[in-house]
Design brief:
The chain is mainly α and 159 residues long. It folds into 2 domains: 54 residues, no CATH class; 99 residues, no CATH class. It is built from 8 helices and 4 strands. The strands form 2 sheets. Strands 1-2 form a two-stranded antiparallel sheet. A two-stranded antiparallel sheet has the order 3-4. Helix 1 runs antiparallel to helix 2 and helix 1 packs across helix 3. The chain is elongated, with a radius of gyration of 26 Å. The chain starts with a helix and ends with a strand.
């Protein structure tokens, strides 16, 4: 692998154009060669090892991300009413889901798809950026029933 970089570095040193280098070695190799030329191979390798160590941490970052996502989801559901609008269920917040009153497959026909899930979506609801009149809280059962009715499914067969 190192020979590939050496060849690319040699070509770079002799003034080969970046376009030709990308054709010969690929754009990833060329960007690595620029980094190697800038920092030197040992410094570059140490930097790569440091980056990979950061990604291999104990998983605390993933856990914090998951906890934050759950927190923002809970706050968004609370802002939308904290109970199912169809049956009134409010026993366990994990069984409640945010539903688009007008289905996304109808909304997105004429416009670019937006990210309608995850932390970004929940923060839009909490901060009032997302129009809450388009959203409602449903329990998991009511949400599935509504989805099947919207897709015109009756008894598992398309009607």
């Amino acid at each position: 692998m190192i020979y590939k970089y050496q060849a690319a570095l040699t070509a770079l040193a002799f003034g080969e154009s970046p376009t030709n280098l990308r054709k010969k070695f690929g754009s990833g190799t060329v960007s690595k060669c620029y980094s190697i030329a800038l920092y030197g191979y040992d410094s570059w390798k140490n930097k790569q090892n440091q980056i990979s160590k950061e990604y291999r941490k104990t998983g605390k970052e993933k856990q914090r991300h998951s906890e934050y996502q759950q927190f923002t989801r809970t706050e968004a559901i609370k802002k939308l009413g904290n109970k199912c609008v169809s049956c009134g269920y409010n026993g366990n917040i994990h069984a409640l889901e945010i539903d688009h009153i007008v289905p996304l497959h109808d909304i997105n026909k004429n416009r670019k798809k937006e990210k309608e899930y995850g932390i970004t979506f929940y923060r839009k609801i909490i901060n009032g950026i997302k129009d809450n009149t388009e959203l409602q809280v449903l329990c998991a059962n009511c949400h599935r029933i509504k989805t099947f009715e919207e897709l015109k499914y009756v008894g598992g067969e398309k009607g």
